């Protein structure tokens, strides 16, 4: 995985697709240029998650994009996903690494700098850090960290840091000013009336920032 792939990182939540098929919405995002998809559907059974992972693996392969599975190293291996994304309630990074081996990607969802540094020390390949802005999906983690703490995390870590939480088209530039490798979004794409157009707009904003920074 290259730094360029991290520019726009899509996390799934089929409850935010306004009744549309998750695979259809993800396909539109891939057509728009997304290169990393994290399958995060915590309420599905193992069998249901496996079937959805198979579909998304086929799609991501078609668009030469990466697929990460939330928490489930077993399903990641079963569908030959590119890696796993874990967090505070997951198996430790070192344990996941033993299951996945050296060549798969491990991401970690961090909500504080010490937590992010520990994930790096344990062998995570990158961290998502947030929530940067208010978002219902991250409300249980307390108040948003803001761009300053995000910048502190990016400065303190050697692995890529991706801003996460409430990021919209209007806040892309401010988020990227923290010197992160990219942004992770859910609703900015999944709830959009046109997920393809939303993806293109986000990537355009990211490219504009890169050209002027």
Description:
- With 213 residues, the protein is α/β, with parallel strands linked by helices.
- It contains nine helices and eight strands.
- The chain has helices at residues 22-32, 46-62, 73-78, 93-100, 113-122, 146-156, 172-176, 187-190, 195-212, and strands at residues 8-11, 36-39, 66-70, 83-86, 105-110, 126-129, 161-164, 182-185.
- The protein has an eight-stranded parallel beta barrel, surrounded by five helices.
- It is globular, with a radius of gyration of 16 Å.
- The relative contact order is 0.16.
Are there runs of 5+ residues with pLDDT below 50, and where? none
Care to count the β-strands?
8
What is the ordering of alpha helices and beta strands?
Answer: EHEHEHEHEHEHEHEHH
Number of domains: 1
CATH homologous superfamily name?
Aldolase class I
Instruction: Please identify, by name, the CATH architecture.
Output: Alpha-Beta Barrel
- Based on Cα principal axes, name the global outline: globular
Q: Would you tell me the structural class of the helices and strands?
A: alpha/beta
The CATH class:
Alpha Beta
First CA to last CA: what distance?
Answer: 23 Å
């Amino acid at each position: 995985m290259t730094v360029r792939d991290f520019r726009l990182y899509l996390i799934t939540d089929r409850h935010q697709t306004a009744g549309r098929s998750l695979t259809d919405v993800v396909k539109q995002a891939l057509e728009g240029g997304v290169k990393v998809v994290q399958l995060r559907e915590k309420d599905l059974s193992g069998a249901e998650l496996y079937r959805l992972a198979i579909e998304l693996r086929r799609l991501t392969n078609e668009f030469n994009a990466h697929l990460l599975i939330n928490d489930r190293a077993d399903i990641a291996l079963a569908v030959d996903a590119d890696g796993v994304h874990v967090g505070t309630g997951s198996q430790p990074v070192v344990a996941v690494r033993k299951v996945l081996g050296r060549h798969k990607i491990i991401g970690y969802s961090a909500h504080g700098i010490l937590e992010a540094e520990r994930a790096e020390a344990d062998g995570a390949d990158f961290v998502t850090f947030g929530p940067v802005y208010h978002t219902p999906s991250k409300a249980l983690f307390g108040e948003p960290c803001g761009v300053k703490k995000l910048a502190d995390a990016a400065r303190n870590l050697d692995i890529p840091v991706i801003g996460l939480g409430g990021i919209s088209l209007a806040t892309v530039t401010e988020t990227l000013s923290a010197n992160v490798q990219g942004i992770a979004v859910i609703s900015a794409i999944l709830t959009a009336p046109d997920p393809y157009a939303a993806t293109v707009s986000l990537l355009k904003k990211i490219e504009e920032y890169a050209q002027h920074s």
